[in-house]
Design a protein that fits this description.
22% strand; 227 residues; alpha/beta; two-stranded parallel ribbon; Rossmann fold; 10 helices; ATP-binding
């Protein structure tokens, strides 16, 4: 089964919660799911994984893989890997990220890899999230929002995937901040990009397994996702 890279049109579009929801519903379907967030940044947690996002993903997947595999590099400031490198003098370790991903693929049937920020978030000066996806050789799912302006961001994201020859499995609309009717947005995105919209997820209050499984099973075209 092919692993997937969950990319976003921007930061704060809900990639972590979409990835967690996918991890839960696929696990409930009997898929041996592993998760990975190659680069994470922000304030480190005092207990468990340094990154709260990584903890959310691991809990959703019921995965207990070592932190150095699931999150090979953590930057203790809220910044892109490139900016963190310049400020902290800690160079992003791309070869270690790629080797960690390879190890995880041997431990699980499928890996959900969550990106950082938007798809052109810089890792090095001339190396972006797109380059990382390309080197991992896996297709991507694009998470977008329903706020006005999302069409522009989504089209640009799809165009960059085309430029880097990254297969796009589909788009998931995270409908947490409203503004653009989902029915209209779905039709417009599919007509403008030629990429299928896999579904839309409403604002989620209950992050329990039961809630996530029910919501994602109901709202996401899982057959198309796994095709």
């Amino acid at each position: 089964m092919k692993s997937l890279f969950i990319a976003g049109t921007d930061t704060d579009v809900g990639k972590t919660y979409i990835t967690a929801g996918l991890a839960v519903v696929l696990r409930k379907m009997g898929v041996d799911i592993g998760v990975m967030k190659p680069f994470a940044a922000g304030s480190a947690q005092k207990k468990g994984y340094k990154s709260e996002d990584v903890e959310i993903l691991s809990r959703a997947a019921h995965a207990c893989d070592p932190e150095n595999l699931v999150n090979p590099q953590f930057f203790p400031i809220p910044a892109s890997p490139y900016t963190a490198w310049k400020k902290l003098k800690i160079k992003p370790r791309i070869p270690i990220v790629l080797s960690s991903f390879k190890k995880l693929t041997k431990l699980h049937e499928m890996i959900l890899v969550e990106g950082m920020g938007g798809i052109m978030t810089p890792i090095l000066k001339d190396y972006f999230i797109t380059n990382l996806i390309k080197e991992m050789k896996i297709p991507t799912v694009i998470v977008t929002r329903s706020k006005v302006g999302t069409v522009n961001h989504t089209i640009m994201t799809i165009k960059m995937c085309e430029k880097y020859k990254i297969p796009v499995k589909g788009i998931i609309i995270n409908d947490f901040d409203k503004g653009y009717p989902v029915k209209d947005l779905t039709k417009d995105l599919q007509n403008l990009t030629g990429v299928p919209v896999l579904g839309s997820i409403p604002f989620i209050k209950d992050m329990s397994d039961e809630s996530l499984n029910r919501i994602f099973k109901k709202n996401i075209n899982l057959k198309l996702l796994l095709k």
